[in-house]
């Protein structure tokens, strides 16, 4: 792997991504534009960004490990994300947009009260740092192994680089790099697939060399109960995770929010088959990996079949998909801290300039926390254990009550807080304490079922008890009144904000077009340097050039001149 071409690809592409972040340094003039894209992000950009926000090197390491060991069940598990997104598109995403809140935390404060919001902010921030810090570890491991570098300095260096463009550019910088990584990883995997099948001797040889249970939809510890609970988990996660809620609130309408979720669902219907096939093929080539070494299955198949340059591109895509996922979380955690803690509690009179400064500084602070968590992952059982355990323990208690509040007129802040804290405590007891004190350890399926099932049952019970009394909660009545009392901005302010948003969106689409063109040219250059996979690489590059042209045309269609009415109003107040 450690060749001049691969290293050059990694360095050039990394520098290019950092430049993209710097281009957006002056586009965020206030919190709405910095964290929500002016609430007018094109839905297809939001959908692709949402898809890549779910991606990371953990996809290749954690799910790749499951695909190598058990086969098709890794695809079954990821199809639960498609089901969750369909449910979200039908019922949840439009609801979030209709709340009018900039962040999920803002909705929680208005609907359930400040004490609930403070508790949720603390838990969400802690969970986000743990999850996104844990997915930084596998990509640092991939880079350190591939380039023969020490793991700790590699983790720190990649983490600092990851934070830089989010702290500078805000949501649009994150989304542009999301789109770029989607294209890079898709290109790399489409090049990898035929080379891997050729190496194993074709599809028929592949099916003959793997275990008999390899194509069963359920396998090993991943039972029907686990998959069913995972469906409910992903309904809550995709529909209620604050990171993803930001994608629904940053578009222009509930209809667009629905399209964001449906695009995600469509991509996750097809992509798991494409992404998981390479480590499955590697099982037929080398079935000897055991323990944590199975986490290297994806990297090993890449090293085996990809020619120089393309291997560097794949590795770069894995890293930046991780940074895209982590940066999305950073952007949201920073938004919550800036909008709901600093502005909402510490300094309500803060200027836009002060808020943007706090937003960028908080991105660095939370990012450094993620680096610290990444350094601890090897000591707690690896990436699969960390990601699934955190999801099982925190998903239901943290996400289900807020989603329930989108629909319920009877749920109170006090009930929400009690259900969240009690079920979170129960999950932690079964995960951390009982295995040590009593030797009781839940299976993966039991852990997931309890983590999602108990909060939902308690919420349903609380709703039923409140319905028997026939009353509407005071928290809901206060929320409705607060929405009704929200001041309406003047037509001049609205027109000015809309003009600035259109300019930002046009600029963002132009940057996407330039980034895609750069990627296509890099692929064309690599196709000239290798005989293996040269044809498919050139074809993919041409398709990417078409995407660049489409983005450029879409940018030019956005009107960025002031409306005549606004010009008259400004000139003749």
TrEMBL record:
Alphabetical GO biological process terms: sodium ion transport
InterPro entries: Na/Glc_symporter_sf, Na/solute_symporter, Sodium:Solute_Symporter_SSF
GO cellular component, one term: plasma membrane
Transmembrane segments: 6-28, 40-64, 70-93, 119-139, 151-172, 179-197, 222-239, 260-277, 361-380, 386-407, 419-442, 448-466, 507-529, 535-558
Predominant localisation class: membrane
CDD domains with a match to the protein in the record: SLC5sbd_u1
Short name of one Pfam family: SSF
Membrane topology type: Multi-pass membrane protein
Cellular localisation: Cell membrane
Gene source species: Spirosoma fluviale
Family: Belongs to the sodium:solute symporter (SSF) (TC 2.A.21) family.
Domain of life: Bacteria
Keyword tags: Cell membrane, Ion transport, Membrane, Sodium, Sodium transport, Transmembrane, Transmembrane helix, Transport
GO MF: symporter activity
UniProt cross-references to Gene3D superfamilies, sorted A to Z: Sodium/glucose cotransporter
Protein's name according to its UniProt entry: Transporter, SSS family
């Amino acid at each position: 792997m450690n060749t001049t071409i691969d290293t050059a690809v990694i360095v050039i592409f990394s520098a290019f991504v950092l430049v993209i972040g710097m281009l957006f340094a002056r586009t965020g003039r206030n919190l709405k534009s910095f964290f929500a894209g002016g609430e007018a992000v094109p839905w297809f950009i939001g959908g692709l960004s949402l898809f890549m926000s779910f991606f990371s090197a953990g996809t290749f390491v954690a799910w790749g490990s499951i695909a190598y060991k058990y086969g098709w069940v890794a695809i079954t598990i990821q199809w639960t994300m498609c089901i969750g997104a369909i449910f979200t598109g039908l019922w949840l995403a439009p609801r979030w947009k209709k709340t009018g809140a900039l962040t999920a935390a803002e909705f929680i404060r208005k609907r359930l009260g400040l004490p609930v919001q403070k508790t949720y902010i603390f838990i969400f921030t802690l969970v986000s740092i743990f999850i996104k810090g844990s997915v930084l570890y596998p990509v640092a491991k991939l880079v350190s192994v591939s380039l023969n570098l020490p793991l700790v300095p590699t983790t720190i260096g990649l983490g600092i680089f990851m934070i830089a463009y989010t702290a500078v550019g805000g949501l649009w910088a994150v989304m542009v790099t999301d789109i770029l990584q989607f294209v890079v990883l898709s290109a790399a995997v489409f090049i990898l697939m035929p080379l891997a099948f050729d190496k194993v001797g074709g599809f028929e040889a592949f099916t003959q060399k793997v275990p008999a249970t390899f194509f069963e939809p359920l396998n090993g510890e991943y039972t029907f109960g686990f998959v069913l609970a995972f469906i409910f988990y992903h309904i809550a996660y995709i529909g209620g995770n604050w990171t993803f809620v930001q994608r629904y609130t940053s578009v222009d309408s509930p209809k667009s929010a629905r399209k964001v979720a449906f695009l995600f669902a469509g991509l996750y219907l097809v992509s798991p088959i494409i992404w998981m096939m390479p480590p499955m093929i590697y099982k037929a080539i080398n079935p000897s990996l055991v323990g944590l070494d199975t986490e290297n299955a994806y990297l090993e198949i890449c090293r085996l079949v990809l020619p120089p340059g393309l291997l560097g591109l794949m590795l770069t895509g894995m890293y930046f998909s991780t940074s895209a996922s982590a940066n999305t979380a950073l952007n949201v955690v920073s938004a919550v801290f800036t909008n709901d803690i600093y502005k909402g509690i510490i300094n309500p009179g803060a200027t836009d300039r002060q808020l943007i400064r706090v937003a960028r500084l908080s991105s660095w602070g939370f990012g450094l926390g993620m680096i610290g968590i990444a350094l601890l992952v090897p000591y707690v059982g690896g990436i699969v254990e960390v990601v699934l355990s955190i999801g099982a323990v925190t998903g239901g208690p943290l996400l289900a009550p807020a989603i329930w509040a989108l629909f319920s007129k009877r749920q109170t802040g006090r009930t929400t807080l009690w259900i969240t804290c009690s079920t979170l405590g129960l999950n932690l007891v079964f995960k951390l304490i009982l295995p040590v004190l009593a030797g009781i350890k839940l299976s993966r399926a039991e852990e997931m079922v309890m983590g999602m099932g108990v909060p939902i049952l308690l919420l349903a019970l609380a709703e039923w008890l409140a319905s028997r009394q026939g009353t509407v909660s005071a928290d809901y009545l206060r929320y409705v009144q607060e929405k009704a009392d929200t001041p309406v901005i003047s037509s001049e302010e609205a027109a000015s904000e809309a003009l600035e948003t259109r300019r930002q969106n046009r600029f963002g689409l132009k940057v996407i077009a330039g980034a895609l063109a750069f990627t296509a040219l890099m692929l064309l250059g690599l196709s000239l340097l290798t005989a293996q996979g040269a044809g498919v690489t050139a074809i993919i590059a041409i398709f990417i050039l078409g995407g660049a042209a489409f983005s450029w045309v879409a940018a030019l269609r956005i009107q960025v001149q002031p409306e005549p009415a606004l010009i008259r109003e400004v000139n003749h107040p």
